[in-house]
Amino acid sequence: MPAHSFSELHTIPFYECNVNNRISIPMLINILILASEHQNENLGLDQTYLIDHYDVGWVVTSYSIHINQLPRKDSVVKMTTRGTSYNRYFAFREFWLHDQDGQELVKVESIWVLMNEQTRKITPIDDTIIAPYQSEKVKRVPRLTRPERIESGADVSAKEYQVRWSDIDFNGHVNNSRYPEWMLDSLPMAFLNEHEPGNIDIRFENEVKYGNRVTSSVLVDSSDNAKIKTVHEIKSNDVLSASATIIWKEIKAKGNDQS
Amino acid sequence: MPAHSFSELHTIPFYECNVNNRISIPMLINILILASEHQNENLGLDQTYLIDHYDVGWVVTSYSIHINQLPRKDSVVKMTTRGTSYNRYFAFREFWLHDQDGQELVKVESIWVLMNEQTRKITPIDDTIIAPYQSEKVKRVPRLTRPERIESGADVSAKEYQVRWSDIDFNGHVNNSRYPEWMLDSLPMAFLNEHEPGNIDIRFENEVKYGNRVTSSVLVDSSDNAKIKTVHEIKSNDVLSASATIIWKEIKAKGNDQS
């Protein structure tokens, strides 16, 4: 029996877009998480139920995001997700974004763990929690590509951020979508206006809380001009919070065109 | 003939909410602007059309926001807007947010001007641009309550922000919804977790651009404990960008309850 797949349509409003009128990376992550939350609800296993009955919650540890095209403002996209497979500690979830013609715009692979809400420690995945997803029980879930690390002494740029109240989630930690926001903002505006990510491998290591300061460091590798690569690290008090490798492509069609 | 009224439904996803699972003030502003943009499109007068045919765009100068109740995560709200009246230079637009039972959650009054896209100067409102809204031509549009100013030497708290790439709009300026975000963030987390705005008078003075630093100052007046008042100023290079007066109320029902 294949894993239970969940789809819904979403129209992208202006406030989910960047200056190029395409969905921003933080909002791309948010809308996909929304689809998975709706699947959880649909299967009777939403956040509140998991806390009330098991004292656990799902936490994402890494995403591998492949972008063919970022959807434009006002476009309607179909979001699809399924909990593809799992083992004792890890669940492998996939996401797709398609346009109205069925073209694949974005594909995301992700790894999740169940965290105890009191101890904030990883707990084994209870079969009763995963059964409704019809996920395949496997020995090993797929390994996502690990983001590169910045070698010490490398020529990095860095920006500092104070965590804002609005960065904080219902659970008291920084919302995952803020890490890519800090990562992208470490790059110059001129670059961001002309390029967009084609591939993002991002990994979340340690939670950041209100009041913390974070440093967003980036190493730009433009040795291959057609395929600029950036390596990112978010640290708080010298502890790694998140890391990412992004492969960029030039934006060809800009402005208000319909492409 | 009464002004043309436009309504649509909106479901509030988790990423439009604050830590209390209620819609955040920046997102409240965003969804209402979305409704007015849809009305503009509906009447054939969207942003692109105004730029292409008149080289102008609508710019909001002030909001007066009255909040009975901030809608919760996952709730469905009805957004309504109309361009109520106008004179030579100013347009008065109203917004309402209702719940599914028809209860008024939020009422917003706002003043708009037309700005020339090249000169960034205010231009008279062309009758052909406003006619489809069936707005009433008046001698004086209603005056919204002006936010108070912070007297020099007052006991203020202040935080500094670097404008981020993600703060910037399609038009190259800071998105209006960022000003209330900076204003609220200048208050302590403990206060924000326990209180929400009942009334916000906010006025936008000067546009802020990428690369600027802004200072968000707040004066807290808790002389009337049942009705805490805060006065806010956002300045960039000592020039006033936005000001606001907020009247607060205590949050009674918290967490995941259904009230």
From TrEMBL, chains A, B:
Coiled-coil residues:
none
Q: Which UniProt keywords apply?
A: Fatty acid biosynthesis, Fatty acid metabolism, Hydrolase, Lipid biosynthesis, Lipid metabolism, Transit peptide
Q: Name one Pfam family in it.
A: Acyl-ACP_TE
Against InterPro entries, the record matches this protein to: Acyl-ACP_TE_C (IPR049427), Acyl-ACP_thioesterase_NHD (IPR002864), FATA/B (IPR045023), HotDog_dom_sf (IPR029069)
A GO molecular function for this record?
fatty acyl-[ACP] hydrolase activity
State the superkingdom: Bacteria
Q: Which residues form the Acyl-ACP thioesterase-like C-terminal domain?
A: 155-250
Tell me where in this chain the Acyl-ACP thioesterase N-terminal hotdog domain is found.
5-133
In its keyword annotation, does this UniProt entry include Lipid biosynthesis? Answer: yes
Similarity annotation: Belongs to the acyl-ACP thioesterase family.
Name of the molecule in the record = Acyl-ACP thioesterase
To which species is this protein native? Lentilactobacillus parakefiri
